[in-house]
Amino acid sequence: MIEKIGKVGRQAALAAGAVLRLNYLKPHEVHLKGVIDPVTESDLQAQEIIINLVRQYFPDHGFLAEEEGAGQERRSSADKQNRWIIDPLDGTVNYAHGFPMFCVSIAYEADGELQYGVIYDPLRDEVFEARKGAGARLNGQPIQVSRTESMERGLFATGFPYDIRERLPETSARLSSMLALTQGVRRAGSAALDMAYVACGRFDGFYEENLKPWDTAAGLLIVTEAGGVITTYDGGPYTIFSPNLAASNGKLHAALLAALKVH
Q1: CATH 3.40.190.80 location in the chain
Q2: CATH architecture entry for 151-260
Q3: Residue 200 CB coordination number (10 Å)
Q4: Is 60 exceeded by the pLDDT of residue 251?
Q5: Are 248 and 198 in contact (CB under 8 A)?
Q6: CB hemisphere CA count around 81 (13 angstroms)
Q7: According to the model, what pLDDT value does residue 67 have?
Q8: pTM (predicted TM-score)
Q9: Is 66 left (phi over 0), alpha (psi -120 to 50) or beta?
């Protein structure tokens, strides 16, 4: 079963990514879901491709997906144990502006546990994948988190939530703390890719708040299968519905959590 799940998930990610790549430099129809939260025609096209493809093989499976029509849980009454968690275009603001940092993120969950995750960067043709208990891979090759042991040698990533204007003091304080302690902090605009980069050692850690399940589901499995650690800011267990996320290579996790404390 999991072999088929992986095959279908990868196929769906590649198909959706192909559409994103094709439309990337074309003019976009951009609509706002919030003050600074856009959606493009490509988000919707990519999502429909993913859902339709999955349904060909698993017609009874449910979906938790970002865009309108699937932002609420869509699931058949025939099977309440299987769910696909989809972000058809993570990094929509980047995409709409022609900034080359975005991806497709798809995860599969059975009985509340993540079993498979894939993150596909269509511009770099990079496929990050993980199966529960089987490690993580990049384009078929095993990957692991970094071995960095010092914050001052660590390169970290962060993101700013769409309600940043309501969180500005705390967000600024955390960023100031991290900038003072680390080699650098990057804000590239795609949480899923940030997590994939932690998994393969490009980043030593990542933190952000107010993320949604489709932002983090695939990345959660990929990072942990690559040997990384993910918790909430207070060190508690992270779920895809948690209010904030701190990911690291494990060696720097305590120091990262200490830096994120805002007094």
Answers
A1: 151-260
A2: 3-Layer(aba) Sandwich (3.40)
A3: 21
A4: yes
A5: yes
A6: 2
A7: 66
A8: 0.92
A9: alpha
Neighbours of 1 (CB within 10 A): 9
Residues 6+ apart with CB under 8 A from 176: none
Closest to 247 in 3D by CA, of 261, 226, 11: 226
Mean pLDDT, residues 224-230: 98
Whole-number pLDDT of residue 37: 52
d(CA 121, CA 188): 13
Q: Are 191 and 199 in contact (CB under 8 A)?
A: no
Whether the pLDDT of residue 132 is over 50: the answer is: yes
Task: Give whole-number Cα distances, 34 to 37, 44, 89, 101, in Å.
Answer: 5, 17, 17, 21
Mean predicted confidence (pLDDT) in 53-75: 77
Nearest CA among 65, 145, 141 for reference residue 108: 65
Q: What DSSP string runs through 211-261?
A: --HHHHHHHHHHHHHTT-EEE-TTSPBP-TT-SEEEEE-STTHHHHHHHH-
